[in-house]
Amino acid sequence: MHIKTFGVEMWMNEFENHCRYNLAETCVDSISLGALIDMAGVDNSVLGELRGMRMGYGAIEGSDRLRDAVAGLYEKQSRENVLTTHGTIGANALVHQTLVSRGDHVIAIVPTYQQHYSIPESVGAEVELLHLRPENGFLPDLNELRTMMRPDTRMIATNNPNNPTGALMDRAMLTEIAEMARDSDAWVLCDEVYRGTDQTGNGYTASICDLYERGISTAGMSKAYSLAGLRVGWVAGPKTLLEDIMIHRDYNTISVGRIDEYFAALALENRAQILDRAHLITRENLAILSDWVEAEPLISWVKPQAGTTALLKYDLPLPSRDFCTQLLEAEGVLFTPGSAMDMEGWLRIGFANSTADLRDGLARVSAFLARHGAAQPS
Model pTM greater than 0.90? Predict the structure, then answer.
């Protein structure tokens, strides 16, 4: 199987350990296991539970405790509608491997995480791209989507909140997409790894698995819950689909680590405290970033409504990779170039790391922009 190089992951692998200010990071500032234990108030019991945990495979489909906790994130799902995976990346890969075959028609809403178009392409699917545009607030044009739908459309692949734009499809828009998919009996795969980070309310938007009988939601512990190191994700959707996914999962996962699932369940059972912290960080930091964008004449954007990332448009005659490598070398600040996401001319910034690092990093970006702006002919 030939597959394209994963642009964002290759960029991060090359540079993320060589920067002072990692403004390419997409997770809400990670927490320690000690902080999680403190939030849960179980300091006296964790070690005892772990000491007694036998290191077998555990429940192959995921522990009942964790699947119950995941089901509690949705309006209509139960334990039987949840299957654990190795991160959201594992969930997405398994869904595509299970549902998409050579010749299938797949619509991918882009920009998005590259899995959602490169994996279908790699198996010989016919992939059509619906491009999000800044003039639409980076929300899909539903009329355009409607013209792309065919009777044989197999899947619509998207993510919500969107990575990298931070755009947010509300319940009404998701319901319209579900109605279009229903006419073709198509699946809708929605990567919801940033769910819980909306800028208003409790942070949660509607989930596709609650709105459509062939809706599939994937998510995990990395972004809103600040626990990427656990490598726990899940698929939420119809029970019959999960049974089909299990056939593929047996070949590459077997089960998720018991210790990882234990701490993931503990986190979700105490998610109110974790999300309070996440909202404090993401909402304060987005306000800081917004003020910075307004003050920078060479930068423009569509302000995110959710998530931990934003796309920045820059007005300099530099390819995005050159911009980012020069910025890193001169100022120690890491962005992600738009070229890694098929969005040349843009930059992705992650704004959910520590507030101090964001402030300091943005000040250094301003210095970089001032030097390069001054060097341009008037």
Answer: yes
